Amino acid sequence: GEEHYNCISALHKSMRGSDENASLYWLGRMLEGGEDPLYVARRLVRFASEDIGLADPLALTQAVAAYQGCHFIGMPECEVILAQCVVYFARAPKSIEVYRAYGNVKECLRMHTGPLPPVPLHLRNAPTRLMKNLGYGKGYKYNPMYKEPVEQDYLPEELKGIDFFKERKT
């Protein structure tokens, strides 16, 4: 019932708040109460990107490994795998940079009126002669061939200058 959602919320918020002690308690409360360990593991995968993100990119690897470990061995043996992951997440630095930036992208797309801007010609793949003749791929600079960073636009002209990492939702 509702307690299922209350407990996962408490676990999530305890990890977000870097309280390893409370995080372990809420995990134990869920597992000892019969919660599906794969449900908890799925939520940890989400947490790894949503709350830890680029502050510790290995968190996602930890979460996926925990999910796989739980899938392989099941309860009760997988409880220690989840406990390790939960403590790792509670101790990990946190960053919502990517979560917020992707939210800004979604907001940009939702607020756009009319047809979405076309992909710039130089970014389009040109597998046929017709596409090449139409200018697909023309002027594209293949970055690995350059020693220095390449000056090149990757967004449509209508979005030139937008930075989803700096834009804030209103």
Automatic annotation (TrEMBL):
Residues 17-168 form the MgsA AAA+ ATPase C-terminal domain. GO terms for biological process: DNA synthesis involved in DNA repair; DNA-templated DNA replication. Pfam families: MgsA_C. GO terms for cellular component: nucleus. It comes from the Eukaryota. One of its GO terms (molecular function) is ATP binding. Gene3D superfamilies: 1.20.272.10, DNA polymerase III clamp loader subunits, C-terminal domain. The keyword Nucleotide-binding applies. This is WRIP1 ATPase. It comes from Alaudala cheleensis.
